[in-house]
Amino acid sequence: MTDSFYGTFKVTEIASAVDVDAIIVGAPFDDKIGIYQEGSALAPQAIRKASQFFAGQSLRKQSIHQLNVLDYGNIQENLSFEKMTEELSAKVSEILAKKARPIILGGDHAIAFGTAKGLADAKEKIDALIWVDAHLDLMNEYPEGKENTRATILRRIIDKKWIKPEQVYFIGPRGHNIGWEEVEFIQKNNMNLLSTKDFQDKKKYQEFLNAILKHKNIYMSVDLDVLDPAFMPGLSVPEPGGFTTRELFSLINEVAKNIRCLEIVELNPKLDLNELSAKVAAKVIYEFFDYM
Ligand SMILES: [Mn+2]
Questions:
Q1: Which in 114, 124, 129, 153 has the greatest CB count within 10 A?
Q2: Helix, strand, or coil (residue 218)
Q3: How do residues 175-202 score in pLDDT, each as one tens digit?
Q4: Long-range contacts, 202-209 (Cβ 8 Å, 24+)
Q5: From ligand 1's centre to the CA of 18, what distance in Å?
Q6: For ligand 1, a single-atom ion, which residues have Cβ within 5 Å?
Q7: What is the pTM of this model?
Q8: Which domains does the chain have, with CATH numbers?
């Protein structure tokens, strides 16, 4: 069975579900701004397929097999941004109402708007948002005239006051696709940031992690382009000089217990090599299950 994440039950409704630990939902969505190669909409199914490659058990006793995890399938493909927001937020709210942890498979990063709306609609008190990403996603418009894209979406989430800027913790920004207006926005609004460069400094990393772990109810949005393209070739916006897979998995392990909602975005299967990137994305989820 390859139409659900390995080791999970595929369901078409969750109303009757009880004692569920986590529920996976896919958001096959491309923002179609014409700058980057489309393909992220294919990611949810590619991740499910790649998950079959692993048997789920690691050296830790806790694994997906000790948990009750459901796969709720995908929202409709190729929706407009507004429709995607409506459908995804409804699913996320419904999952939260079941006291389960939503795991959202993007889609490009614009889907975070749907996730954030779902958390807000469910009146879920989120203490912190960890934005794991090579980029800042804080442009007011990008490209010019476009307000709801992968490059602006965190700005839109903050505009809506679904999360306060000082509750945001960036991990992994780097490189040369940063807008200076984004840097100024971060400084003006007291946002927390650990760059890829500072991530290599063990003391700075530990201090940043300690600050994050004071928060018990975290929304973690993982843009896979935080990884070096050498580890993650299937990316629409690759940025060399990034994390190793081991570094990302360790981060997931450290914060897993405090994560209320996990989102994984930006895998582009059209640009993948040997389905390696899809396996990396699946592994992020397995690592979360081992430590959640
Ligand atoms: Mn992003």
A1: 114
A2: strand
A3: 999 999 999 999 999 999 999 999 999 9
A4: 208/169, 208/171, 209/254, 209/255
A5: 33
A6: 109, 133, 137, 223
A7: 0.98
A8: 9-291 (3.40.800.10)
